[in-house]
Write a structure and sequence with these properties.
Blueprint lengths: L2 H19 L4 E9 L8 E9 L8 E3 L5 H6 L1 H13 L1
Antiparallel strand pairs: 1-2, 2-3
Helix pairs in contact: 1-3
């Protein structure tokens, strides 16, 4: 599976549980240019972007691990951990 498809799949999974976590929290797939500090060439990567229209603390970007085990067993826990750490 190509990277974009992994991220699109992660977004779909997150959108299933996100309303139960926070009705206003949104997620989307985006890209970002990475500039390594070791002099390597810049590259573009995919990421998930989370944002909340009325709470600035609930804005973050997240990379995922592109494998089935992560998608099925770790993705939701990772999002929830970040969410609860940011609202404290």
């Amino acid at each position: 599976m190509i990277p974009f498809n992994w991220y699109a799949r992660a977004k779909e999974r997150i959108e299933r549980f996100l309303p139960g976590l926070d009705q206003e929290l949104q997620v989307d797939v985006d890209t970002d240019v990475i500039t390594p500090h070791n002099g390597s060439a810049e590259y573009t990567t995919f990421l998930l972007t989370f944002w909340h229209p009325s709470n600035q603390k609930l804005r973050w970007n997240m990379e995922i691990r592109m494998d089935e085990v992560y998608m099925e067993h770790e993705l939701e826990a990772a999002v929830r951990k970040i969410y609860f750490a940011r609202i404290e």
